[in-house]
Records
---
Amino acid sequence: MPNKKTFVYCEKCGKKLIERLPNGMWKFVFGKKAEGAKLPPVYMLIHGSLKMACIRRSCGHFNVFNYFPTNQSPTEKSGKNNKEEEQNK
Ligand SMILES: [Zn+2]
């Protein structure tokens, strides 16, 4: 399969806002690359959750994007064993 890019869109107006990389990080690129430049004016990688206003000026809707995907529940098993040590008195 070729590189498949995943984007998230404004939940209000549907404008493409930010790219989601396969490792969960966000990639935000904005502006046109100048001739001879390696990168566009804005090139950001974001690790974590973020809240951003829609970049469509007539919209401005705030979107909240969680780092953790909502369709995957973390395993609850792995957290419990570690707490037993703290309870020993
Ligand atoms: Zn919008």
---
Amino acid sequence: MEQHTLKPHSAYSGSCIILTTKHAKSTHCTKCDTPGWGKVRVETGLTCSGCGTETKLIKHEVHGCTKCSYEETHKPSHGLEQAEPGNCQYCNP
Ligand SMILES: [Zn+2]
Ligand SMILES: [Zn+2]
């Protein structure tokens, strides 16, 4: 049996979609709330798991603001804590 209930589904989900899209599109600076926050540079020097020498692999990603000078360091996209000895100049010259 089908019951007819009056629930404003379409209007409700409509406003939700707008909010979600707005949030995902542009990231704002946590300091001054200016849109355009993102990766500005990377810092290399991830240490080798074999010998501890700094390699050319990315150690940190630096995210920053286009307006103010606020910056944050993030984990690199490769997600490694240490470099493979194969990427090391000392272990694998
Ligand atoms: Zn090494
Ligand atoms: Zn800012």
